[in-house]
Design brief:
Elements: H1 6-47, E1 52-59, E2 64-71, E3 76-83, E4 86-87, E5 90-95, E6 98-103, E7 108-110, E8 115-121, E9 128-135, E10 138-146
Parallel strand pairs: 1-10
Antiparallel strand pairs: 1-2, 2-8, 3-4, 3-7, 3-9, 5-6, 5-8, 9-10
Length: 148
């Protein structure tokens, strides 16, 4: 019984490895490209006159919900943050080296064309959360997943 030579075996393994690497690269590129295009589309909507939009949201390993958003061509007053349909009672909003407490009884006005970050605490067992920001001129929604 004869086997395959080591040269042919090496060539076959090399081709399989290159094909698998190319498939992983193409898949990863498509995922990153789709997120990038969604971010650009949202940014253009905000720049084009939308009041505000959520650019990204995630849950950190230290159980903080982080929401990154941006205002459009007009100042926006952030009135409330809802996490999983419940009003968040203690959040902090950061913009332009300024921080402000955002509670159930307060609102914060963010200047036009400004990126801002909101941090809220979430349950230790939360793997994802549905987020809704309520503004004076509308609302924005997003889904946040745990990272790290």
């Amino acid at each position: 019984m004869r086997g395959v030579s080591e040269y042919v075996a090496t060539l076959i393994i090399t081709l399989v490895t290159l094909a698998a690497g190319a498939a992983i690269f193409i898949y990863s590129y498509n995922v990153v490209d789709s997120y990038y295009n969604a971010l650009i589309r949202t940014s253009e909507e905000v720049y084009g006159g939308s009041s505000a939009a959520i650019l990204a949201s995630y849950i950190t390993s230290s159980r903080d919900l982080v929401i990154i958003a941006s205002t459009g061509s007009k100042p926006v007053t952030v009135m409330a943050v809802y996490i999983n349909e419940s009003l968040a009672t203690a959040c902090t909003l950061f913009y332009n080296k300024t921080s402000a407490s955002l509670s159930s009884s307060s609102a914060v006005t963010v200047p036009y064309y400004t990126a801002f970050v909101i941090r809220c605490g979430v349950s230790p067992s939360a793997r994802y959360a549905y987020v809704k920001l309520v503004f004076d001129s509308g609302e924005a929604v997003a889904k946040a997943s745990r990272v790290g």
